[in-house]
Amino acid sequence: MRRPMYFTGFDCLGCRAAYPPDQDLLLCPKCHDLLEARYDLARFGREVDRDALARRPSGVWRWTELLPVLDPTRIVTLGEGGTPFLRSERLARACGVRELWLKSDAANPTGSLKDRSITVSATKAVEFGYGVLACDSTGNKASSTAAYAARAGLQSVVFCPKDTPRPKMAQAVFFGARLIRVDGHYSQINAMYRRLIASGRVKWYDCGTDNPFRYEGKKTYAYEIAQDLGWRVPDRVLHPAAGGMSLVKTWKGFNELRALGWVDRVPKMTLVQAARCAPIVEAWKQDLPRVAAVEKQSTAASALAAADPGLLGDRALHSVRASGGSGIAVDETEILDAVRLLGQDGLMIEPSGAVTVAAVRRGVRDGSIDPGESVVCVLTGSGFKDFDQILELVEIPSQVIAGYDAMVAEAERIG
Ligand SMILES: Cc1ncc(COP(=O)(O)O)c(C=O)c1O
Ligand SMILES: [Zn+2]
Question: Which of 35, 275, 315, 408 could form a disulfide with 10 if both were Cys (CB 3.0 to 4.6 A apart)?
Fold first, then answer.
């Protein structure tokens, strides 16, 4: 079905230059700042009813008109989005907060939040006629890029730090990617990769940090959360951050809903990082105008270890402040405790994706989160993504039984 589109182009967040919707863009060609997609929300609001949208199949493409695609007949999808949204009384009690919800993007096709955005960039690659998808990644973006390239019948090339969790690398290779492991930490690789793309030496479609189409997919978090709550908005949404754009776009999504009059307020946004690599949280705490690079230390939350988030980090800082939210850094013990706590609720989440639960606990304890709040913890990746860390948390019994009598004996012992 052909639907009317409302995407009208991009505005540069730096020099405010405006660009038409059909241009193949990364950063602003004039000043190299980030671009932000613009929509005719007034017309969309007049022509599309929020309850009619709710009757469509769930997922990222329920919101096609609010995404920057021009040809909705050629969408590259694996059924991303529409992920579980679960209230947890147990975690609310453990964290000391009135109402706690989990938004689990572990249920996405490749097991992480990245599918929300890569579905959009893969669709754009098809629209623009590219043959190869590429990205630099701490692992999740790589496996997602590889999967969507496979789905679209395209090639993929992904650059990852050499110590990226093996399941993430295996997934990328499994889907047919050329995986290039690079010495150095993620921000160093990101700088080299962006330089490579900007040099024009390769004709790959960049699904990395400069792609303004891709990020728009992340705002569907806001739409799904608001819709699942019956268009009620929680007091606070906590999101794990590396560069921070997922948080920025979630915030944008809530603001679009408010502009449409579909919700009457927006949440506070709390950005969560591992204390061992927390440049955005540091900038927020010190009230700095911009994010400064930090020395990277290794952390269980390896997907969040962007020591120098650059322009993305500045935007994230801006969104946190505009929302009246906060930045929270959690230490290694708190992160692994949160992974365990989620397990007690039936969810297996990778450490990078579980930091939000750790942050609610910490926030309530230090007084920055009010116990009377309703909070949403976005959980951004499956425990299978970083399975070695799950193996560290458990002991698989070494004893093996044989025969029915032994089984009965065991059963009676357990009771
Ligand atoms: C599991 C997980 N959570 C959160 C993020 C953070 O995303 P962003 O760079 O948009 O802050 C990532 C990014 O790699 C991730 O893999
Ligand atoms: Zn510009």
Answer: 35
